[in-house]
């Protein structure tokens, strides 16, 4: 295992599961914390995070990536934000959680142990899944007696290899929620079921993803299935505010800061669905997508198309973000953690 890269077809990586070498595990009871953790080989284990949650009933999942720079360094992008988001979500769900330091240490150990599975520069990234779930027996809705923190990963290709492929979205007007107001700041798998059903329906009709309206009024856009959404109007970029119903994405936060640095005005507010017709560009942000162009949005059988391509605001923001993540642009904000 001393070779620089694993025996993987990096040019045709795709998004199918590629088993990495090790995963990190730590456990905690009500009287302990997550100080102790260990790396273990995957062996023949196939780990499905959704199945883990269904079996144990309570869990939170994060998504993040490790990149390899042109100089061979392995980099993590803003891991402390994922750590803080898991910690806040755990508190809301009455779960024990690792500290920010322990979270980052577990992720670092996982990436270092799987270094040969971090793709070459420009070929993709190691997609990481930090997972926290209740692993002890419990009665009814009582908190679990023990919690397990796992970090595992799999190499994936760049979501949009050429940078200009665009999403075509369908606006879903009726989506049942786990409760009124949505899931808030918790990335809990058990709240994904109605989203998955809406996605399945949209994709069967040729759409690539779903844009949801707010659950309370049904008049404002909220978010795409696993991504935040932005509208470009001249020099102004508009995005729905994270007011308790929308998960504050880490890529979202980063792109807003980049846009402000580039001289754009950014408005975080309620965005009426009618404003989709006024936008020149629309894009989505998320861990998997990065910054993804939206080519069209269909609402009530009316299709609105948007500008995509290299000479777009979307591409400008994407280029800066990717440059920082991979170390080709100077990281003046200390967003990137070099780990190997």
TrEMBL record:
PTM sites of type N6-(pyridoxal phosphate)lysine: 187
Q: Name one GO biological process term.
A: branched-chain amino acid biosynthetic process
| Classification via Gene3D superfamilies | 3.30.470.10, D-amino Acid Aminotransferase, subunit A, domain 2
- What EC number(s) does this enzyme carry? 2.6.1.42
The family database entries (InterPro entries) matched by this protein are listed as: Aminotrans_IV (IPR001544), Aminotrans_IV_CS (IPR018300), Aminotransferase-like (IPR036038), B_amino_transII (IPR005786), BCAT-like_C (IPR043132), BCAT-like_N (IPR043131), BCAT_family (IPR033939)
Q: Which UniProt keywords apply?
A: Amino-acid biosynthesis, Aminotransferase, Branched-chain amino acid biosynthesis, Pyridoxal phosphate, Transferase
Kindly list the cofactors needed: pyridoxal 5'-phosphate
Top-level taxon: Eukaryota
The catalytic activity, as recorded, is: L-isoleucine + 2-oxoglutarate = (S)-3-methyl-2-oxopentanoate + L-glutamate; L-leucine + 2-oxoglutarate = 4-methyl-2-oxopentanoate + L-glutamate; L-valine + 2-oxoglutarate = 3-methyl-2-oxobutanoate + L-glutamate
Is the keyword Amino-acid biosynthesis in the record? yes
What EC class is this?
transferase
Sorted alphabetically, the Gene Ontology cellular component annotations on this record are: cytoplasm
Q: Name one GO molecular function term.
A: L-valine-2-oxoglutarate transaminase activity
Q: One Pfam family of this protein, by short name?
A: Aminotran_4
Q: Which family does it belong to?
A: Belongs to the class-IV pyridoxal-phosphate-dependent aminotransferase family.
NCBIfam families according to UniProt: ilvE_II, PRK13357.1
How is this protein named in the record? Branched-chain-amino-acid aminotransferase
Which species is listed as the source? Capsella rubella
């Amino acid at each position: 295992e001393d070779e620089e890269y694993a025996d993987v077809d990096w040019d045709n990586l795709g998004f199918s599961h590629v088993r990495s070498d090790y995963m990190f595990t730590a456990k905690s009871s009500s009287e302990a914390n997550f100080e102790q953790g260990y790396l273990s080989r995957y062996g023949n284990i196939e780990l499905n995070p959704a199945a883990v949650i269904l079996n144990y009933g309570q869990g939170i999942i994060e998504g993040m990536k490790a990149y390899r720079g042109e100089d061979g360094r392995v980099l993590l992008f803003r891991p402390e934000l994922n750590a803080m988001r898991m910690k806040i979500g755990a508190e809301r769900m009455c779960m024990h959680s690792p500290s920010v330091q322990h979270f980052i240490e577990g992720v670092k150990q996982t990436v270092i142990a799987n270094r040969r599975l971090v793709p070459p520069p420009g070929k993709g990234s190691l997609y990481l899944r930090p997972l926290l779930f209740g692993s002890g027996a419990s009665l009814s809705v009582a908190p679990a007696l023990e919690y397990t923190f796992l970090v595992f990963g799999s190499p994936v290709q760049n979501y949009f290899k050429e940078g200009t492929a665009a999403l075509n979205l369908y606006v879903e007007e009726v989506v049942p929620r786990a409760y009124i107001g949505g899931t808030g700041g918790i990335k809990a798998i058990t709240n994904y079921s109605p989203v998955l059903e809406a996605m399945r329906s949209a994709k069967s009709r040729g759409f690539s993803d779903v844009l949801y309206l707010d659950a309370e009024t049904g008049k404002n856009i909220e978010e795409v299935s696993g991504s935040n959404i932005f509208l470009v109007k001249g020099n102004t970029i508009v995005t729905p505010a994270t007011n308790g119903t929308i998960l504050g994405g880490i890529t979202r936060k980063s792109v807003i800061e980049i846009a402000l640095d580039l001289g754009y005005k950014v408005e975080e507010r309620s965005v009426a669905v009618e404003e989709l017709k006024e936008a020149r560009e629309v894009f989505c942000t998320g861990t998997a997508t990065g910054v993804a162009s939206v080519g069209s949005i269909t609402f009530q059988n009316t299709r609105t198309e948007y500008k995509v391509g290299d000479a777009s605001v979307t591409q400008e923001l994407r280029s800066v973000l990717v440059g920082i993540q991979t170390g080709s642009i100077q990281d003046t904000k200390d967003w990137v953690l070099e780990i190997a």
